[in-house]
Amino acid sequence: MTQKLSLKEELQKRGLIYQYTDEKLFEEYDKWGKVLYLWVDPTADSLQLWNLVPIMAAVNFMKRGNKLILILWGATGMIGDPSWKDKERQLKSIEEIKKNWEKIYRQLVDILDRLSKFSGIKLESEVVNNYDFYKNMSILEFLRDVGKYITVNQMIAKESVKRRLQDPERWISYTEFSYMLLQWYDFLKLYEDKNVQLQIWWSDQWWNIVTGIELIRKKLGKDNAWWFTVPLLTTSDGKKFGKSEGNAIWIDPNKNSPYFVYQYFINTTDEDVEKFLKILTLLDLEEINKIVEKHFEKPEKRFGQKKLAYEIVKFLFGEDEAEIAKNISELLFWKENKLEILSKFNNQWLERLFNEIWGIKNIKLPISILDILVESWLAKSKSEARKLIKQWWIYLNEKLINDINYQITDKDFIKNIALLRKWKKSYKLLIK
Known about the structure:
CATH class of the largest domain: Alpha Beta
Helix content: 40-55%
Mean pLDDT: 89
């Protein structure tokens, strides 16, 4: 086990510190029994991969016996964050927001439960919907209790608001302008009702951070509320973490599969393996050092990436899903004895494999290799299929097919399945 580190030391070694308002917060939250919070915006119906960074930062506070409050923005999500947007957001209905936060709530609870289970550490948390803060509050109460303490000068000084106001082609409604007041009141409300003294979020929220603390100071006369921010995580080539060709990666198996997430981390560069292991897992720091050391003995084996991918899929989707993703990946990209591995796949694993690489079911035999290449979309036409065969690009059950007249029959199937491959990595599953 790693030598006992202070909270600040561990956060530093894991690369999770960007900014904080007061050194005292580390002393207080190292004692255990404190409460902190982070917020989640329910304008989508799922968390995204980048949400893991502040969550894992919070978990490192929770490891010390502190409680996390996850605040779902049921109220705030009805307005929409104007930050860095060029135009007004489309408002979502109350029904849509409610469905979104119910799904996200389940994701958050499941993630924290799995982290607690796999780490053996009790992680105490509570989920709060900030819609409950406002549903019985009148506009007059809100203006007196919140608006009174924040100046318009402060609000228009916010960079994202300033950009909108300076461009004559853009504008900002009072609705979006008031969004920041809700954000600051959340901290005040949680401070009063839940004894929350610390909020965690991204470094680009720093202006909101200090203003929220100021509201607590002005209204309550308290100076023991703090903020802590995590860095905006990027890959070694400068791309934002969790983005794949400009598209979000969701923590929802119905939007992108656990295997898809597994492959995202398998494709992590060697330079990012250690950083991601430290930030996105609860593995002991000494264990991470051993993983990295072993990885660089033979980096082409991608030992570090495999460990990283497995650990993350395990706590996001469960150990069964991590095993399925691992075995599909090993089958398609690593192991030489593919047929032996494939023969051990149960029906559930075969169904997942089919969903990932697609193929053809209920094949009527015999069928020509040319027809199967076209039907499986490995070739656009029979003419292209002939060229692929003549170029020695086509394999059936890892056996080279160099005969354009080849007929696929029962003998080509193992337990009603066969694996068709074009070149190195284009696979299709054939099921009788």
